Amino acid sequence: MDVKSGYPWWPVRNGLLRDYLPLRHDVECEVAIIGAGITGALIAAVLVKAGFDVVVTDRRDVAWGSTSASTALLQYEIDTELTELAEMFGMAQAVLAYKACRAAVDELGEIAGDLDDTGFARCESLYFASSPRHLKRLRAEYAVRRENGFDVRWLDAAELRKRAGFSAPAALLSRPAANVDPYRLTHSLLARCSAAGMRLYDRSEITDIKCESTGLTLRTHDGPRVKARCAIVAAGYETGAFLPTKVSRNRSSYALVSEPLEPFPEALRRLVVWETARPYLYWRSSEDGRLIVGGEDDAIDNPTKRDLKVSGKCAKLLKRMHRLFPSLPLKTGFAWAGTFAETKDGLPYFGAHPKCDPRIKFAMAYGGNGITYSTIGARILCDGLQGRRHPLAELFGFARTRG
Asked: Mean pLDDT over residues 351-371, rounded?
């Protein structure tokens, strides 16, 4: 079978789940959300439930941007280890961030439980030492997590081999964690919001936001406008184009999904796995007995150049997996690449930028925790619109970069 590449796996697997019309006439609303990916969908769901009149637009089809390329590992652990985050912002703030991510995994389970067939499945997270040199760092991370009440277990090399079927110096086994189909989850959330009165227009690119005394006017590339009291820019890595200063950098990541493994190794089931090296290799199982493997990140910020590297990058991913699992008959069934953004500290940005009109909010759920961050960010933004201050509004906002 020839390896298919060039398009993310989720849309091909699921097909076009629902079609929405472009914006053809002027509309008005309380909150306009730019971006119909998983971030925009999670925010819309919270705002619609809170009673806001919401309009969502996207320059592509629903969930066709970064969401369709996501491998959707849901973990409370973030790319910046708890020990490192504590050095940056203090232990109290670091623990607050980690505990919020932990709660977000459970909240996503509740959200998925109310929807049909999102592929949500609970599992455990395995974080292994890529090298013996990383053992000291991993032990420190283990100790800090245990001290702060996280459900984490230390696995030595023998226990790791027995539990996960591969060799490494040691690992941390943590709960909660989960998997989900991000494409289907996004479509399901937006369909439910639409049934509740939200209006959604895809293939409608917002090219300009005009700030007026009476509100905001968002103009599309074809001319129709959205008049709103507030706008939330949730356009993934493209959100940076709406900011006056650069707060993130774009990178490329590569992924493959294997052909079905029969029988599927029990040691690999119900695990999301990643490593201490940066950039890191990671993998998880799928509902239909495949492995989804990702990594080999680089600094390319050009879709054409990125896609030309898919074949070579995924060959490297496959080679690394064969080193860990030499007897596993792993063959690539589908391969793709995606652009993502990351911040220096691994944290997201939600809220208004000090140099922009305060009625324009940003939802930048960057890094490897985009979906869990978006779950938290939806609450931060909703609280702000209702006149409340979320405990993470400062740490997960632009205030942390001032000065």
From this structure: 95
